[in-house]
From TrEMBL:
GO terms for cellular component: membrane. This is Fusaric acid resistance protein-like. Keywords: Membrane, Transmembrane, Transmembrane helix. Residues 245-365 form the Integral membrane bound transporter domain. It is a multi-pass membrane protein. It comes from Caballeronia arationis. It is found in: Membrane.
């Protein structure tokens, strides 16, 4: 036996290991740039874990909301999965705690805030229909104000303001009515469960980073007003201008412009300008990439959903520090998921780019002319 092993060892070529290692390196070489880029944008993989949590939370909520046993008998039950999934997704984005109990508490509150925003729209928007053709959009103005103002209460307050606006935005886009309040309540319960479970499983592997759009504002403002109040006023003023523009001209998707205006407002005029530039650049990259993938919506929709999930992971990785990359990833995700859901109008999908441009420009105007905040006060 020893002679046989010795002969086998003698007949082995020492270069075989080198060839095998070289072959493995050659196979991995095409993915090396991607791996290097991921490591640069997310050293330590902590944000990648959060990105996976976002996708998991959305998937769990959407799946539970699609079950007939849950959706049966609910008004607007067909929308339950999408509504619950969106509540869970954005609650997971806004949550930024380090311990599981605190995260679970915040996720529950954030889902409730989204439901409150949707319910607020359902109850009050019908009263605004007689004010103007774009009357229901006036509800989004209140949400835009809360996104800025509630930053004075820390990260959780900023997340609550964002969730109220997102709830209003979802109710507006899904045309929810007062009769859909039971559906909203069930969506909140599903979203809370779906967002908490992945967070409990991720445990200490996550190290949350504060998202710039949700970071607390400046410690002081101007003219006796807090900086957060001024930021809310700036966002609401820009949103109101977009509502008036839509009423006069008829924009394709004015809610996209309102959203852009709301989330670019920062703690100073120069900060707002920087965020607008990054958001526009990111959107102008993400939208064409998504339009190039539209054929997959017909021939390989499952592949398109997988690519969208990966884009949301990139979104979570980039959001704290690379707002441009995050905006590109989200614009891509939005367009491809709309296409996978049956919306194939290229002019409508391309409107995402120029609606973002409109919202960004009005955000800059509001930040410069409405009680402008100075960087020196940070």
């Amino acid at each position: 036996m020893n002679a046989r092993n010795a002969k086998r060892a003698w007949t082995m070529n020492p270069a075989d290991d080198d060839h095998e290692a070289a072959a493995m390196r050659a196979r991995a070489r095409p993915f090396a740039p991607v791996a290097g880029w991921l490591e640069r944008i997310d050293p330590g993989t902590h944000r990648r874990i959060k990105g996976l949590r976002l996708v998991t939370a959305y998937g769990i909520a959407a799946s539970l909301g699609s079950l007939q046993d849950i959706a049966h008998g609910l008004p607007g039950g067909a929308l339950l999965g999408a509504l619950a999934g969106s509540f869970a997704l954005w609650a997971s984005v806004s949550e930024a705690r380090t311990t599981r109990p605190e995260s679970s508490r915040d996720l529950s509150l954030l889902c409730i805030a989204a439901g409150a925003g949707a319910a607020m729209f359902c109850l009050l928007a019908p009263l605004l229909q007689h004010v103007a053709r774009a009357g229901p959009e006036l509800m989004l103005v209140s949400g835009a104000f809360l996104v800025g103002y509630l930053k004075r209460f820390g990260v959780l307050g900023a997340g609550v303001g964002s969730q109220v606006y997102i709830g209003q935005l979802l109710a507006y886009g899904m045309h929810l009515a007062p009769g859909d309040l039971p559906t909203i309540a069930v969506a909140v319960a599903i979203a809370a469960l779906a967002s908490i479970v992945p967070r409990m499983l991720s445990g200490p592997a996550e190290r949350p980073a504060t998202v710039a759009a949700l970071a607390p504002g400046l410690p002081s403002g101007r003219h006796g007003m807090s900086a957060e109040f001024i930021m809310g006023l700036q966002a609401a003023s820009g949103a109101l201008a977009i509502v008036a523009m839509n009423d006069a001209l008829g924009l394709v998707e004015s809610s996209w412009a309102i959203t852009a205006c709301t989330y670019v407002v920062a703690g100073s005029a120069t900060g707002t300008l920087a965020r607008v530039r990054r958001r526009i650049v990111g959107t102008l990259v993400g939208v064409p990439l998504a339009l190039a993938c539209l054929p997959l919506a017909v021939h390989a929709p499952l592949v398109l959903w997988c690519v969208a999930a990966f884009a949301m992971i990139v979104y979570a990785m980039a959001l704290p520090e690379r707002y441009d990359v995050a905006c590109a990833a989200f614009a891509f995700t939005l367009i491809v998921t709309m296409a996978a859901s049956g919306t194939h109008s290229v002019p409508l999908l391309a409107a995402r780019a120029w609606e973002t441009l409109i919202g960004g420009v009005l955000g800059i105007v509001a930040a410069i002319f409405i009680f402008p905040l100075r960087p020196g006060r940070e």
